Description:
With 115 residues, chain A is an all-beta fold.
Amino acid sequence: SQTIHQWPATLVQPVGSPLSLECTVEGTSNPNLYWYRQAAGRGLQLLFYSVGIGQISSEVPQNLSASRPQDRQFILSSKKLLLSDSGFYLCAWSVFLRGAADTQYFGPGTRLTVL
Amino acid sequence: AQTVTQSQPEMSVQEAETVTLSCTYDTSESDYYLFWYKQPPSRQMILVIRQEAYKQQNATENRFSVNFQKAAKSFSLKISDSQLGDAAMYFCAYGLVFGNEKLTFGTGTRLTIIP
């Protein structure tokens, strides 16, 4: 069965510091991978998605970047964090089924607080 | 652009009773998926149920069922025999069948179960 891992679970960082959040998927090959952010009391906003190694699409311009160095690894980064980067970050995966992206399944998330 | 609207920020139901959560969406597409996700206090997004727009039959998963009205662009979730573990935020989401980039989420409904 497929599983998705995210770490760290919780992170407190000062403004201006770098960021690296990691997401890995097990039990599937060539998944689509996604990074979402959820602000307090809000729905999810897509940040990045990837259909393959080295292929990253950005949904909105921001202080963040993403990379996919391996098939089942997705990394969210920042060189200098802003206060507005605080939130709950969720990674998700899906696979192509009958030529289309299927259901997205989410990881446990990372709670980021920027002080 | 597709939008998803959940007009009930909060709902409550007596344990063992039935509750219906509302969701409407706006799209010009004909081929899409609709989902209900549950987010308990742990904040991990858990898939509750999924509906493919081309299917006329409403999806069911044990105590969870949907009322999908394609012409009205309505997708409500019915929870029967409510249990304490059903307490969570519930998000309605929309995704294109051939759009691998994102799900569009509503703002969520917080469901409280009264013992």
